[in-house]
## 1
Amino acid sequence: MQKIFLSLIIMILGVVPAFAGALSPGEQAPEFSLKNMNDKQVALSDFKGKVVVIGMFHICVPCMNQAMEFNKVRKQMSEDQVVVLGINTNGDSKEAVAQYLSKFPEKVEFPYLFDPVKGVYKSYSQREMPTVLIIDQKGVLNARVPAVGADQLVTYIKKML
């Protein structure tokens, strides 16, 4: 049963249709450059040659739960091959994001970026909360899915490496 479920999730990761007007798997991922919680500028292009897993988050419990799944991914995957990023796409202030992160059951183990002008939200046409994006080593969107567990993500990512 677990094998069937995992196969179904992997199949969904590869074929989920995007919403009308949203970036679809197979398209080049739009560039972005945002500050992390330490005010360091982080750009998508910094990670060419690596698989990039992005969580598009708001301040909500489902997003916190996805972030905790990302922590598990971060612990299982080499930083030389896979980058995990969280992005607050709701336009919340750095202070609001910091307060939200302080309430997590554990510290996030990946860069958490904030987007006060909602540029990533708009360029990626976010519809679901959270949205998980997987971008391949060439900067092409490989998958776009709602919340997904760490085990399914790790299995899917390993096939990309």
## 2
Amino acid sequence: MMEIEVLLAPDRVIANLRVTSKKQALQELAKRAAEAIGLHERAIFDVLLERERLGTTGVGNGIAIPHGKLAGLKQLVGLFARLETPIDFDSIDDQPVDLIFLLLAPEAAGADHLKALARVSRLLRDRSVCEKLRGADQPDALYALLTQSPASHAA
């Protein structure tokens, strides 16, 4: 079982991201991810945008899991943002999004990429976890909620 700690570092949790659109959210996350992993912001943004063109990563219940594979990336990287104000993300249930978990994978990640996606989506399908995330406004509190293990054993 892949743990969230493997994907997410405390400095990649954003507590009150101020954005007004899906595009702006992806741009901002690409910028933060670029700072964290030392790859080009534009390359990350393009990968995310390309993925959105295939179909929205707004999975419903206010959650989006934008993701993509990136040349030059050495390992799976996650970034979490809690938005100050929910935004339209073309979600499958038409609900605005306020919790975003960005996932970037090396081009050759294969099954690990899918395992990580499954892990993140399972965590964020837990309504009580999401309620707590929405109620927390400090990065360390959010990180603790995202990485606490009891949730990781629930299917």
## 3
Amino acid sequence: MKHGPLMFLGVLAAVLASWLVAVLAPHFQIGHEEPILIEELGINYPVDRPGEAKQGAEVYRAQGCQYCHTRQVRQEPLFADLTVTDLGTNAVETRRVVASLRRDLAGVDGRRLPEELPRPLLKHVSYAAAEAALRRLTNAGAQVELTLANLGPDIARGWGARRTVARDYLRDHPVMLGQVRFGPDLANLGARQTNEMRLYLKLYNARLELPGSTMPRYPYLFEERRLRPGQEPSPDALRGFGFEPPPGIEIVPRPEARQLVAYLLSLKADTLFYETYVPRPASAGAAAVTNGPAAAPPAPTPPPAQP
């Protein structure tokens, strides 16, 4: 072919460019992250999982749980509202900044503006734009409030207090993010569900609690034992939540079930640090940012867990 070498070089350049953008750039961006010290808690986050939970991660993978559950609290692009509550000591500069942000306010009589406060200035704009405006107004001496205009469905339904970030997975090898949600997200299951027995019963038969559940049963993770006359069931035998074993039989978790439940209870991506701080939603009442760093959103009331 007359232009064969040029075509080859063109294809090579396209493949190389794709590799640089999709592989190398993310590696330089987040590939060298380290655990971060949370001074308030005195821990390095993320905390390393105990041995039984590490073994449970392998059970989780072996059972294919990642095919039906994700481990990522998703957050749609953040939008924010910005309100001016006080012009501050340098009202002239504040009015100038306000006029540059809202051209429709440029003709407002500056002497009347304080009487009309608090004044919504920006509504449902990108969080980056709202934060930049907050810095400009703060530098001018104004008092402003920044509130989050949207949470996203994952946070709203109680699957997490914040979105998950790359740092959350530093202790996971491999990372099992999942793609499909036949069941709820599990990134923060250990934060919203702490009852081991309830998780054991979910694994044994999810339809005991939720009739019609599509979650498969895992009876082979449990052992049936026949009780002698008058013998009491073991302390770790399945019980409660409406479950009744067959007469004269106890059902106890095998080591694999204990390890899997330990892993599920260790799934907590709710620790807050700088890169995950977000302001409270407007419906939470108080504004999250008032001339200062964003505060953590309040933890929503969790719905019943459905691993």
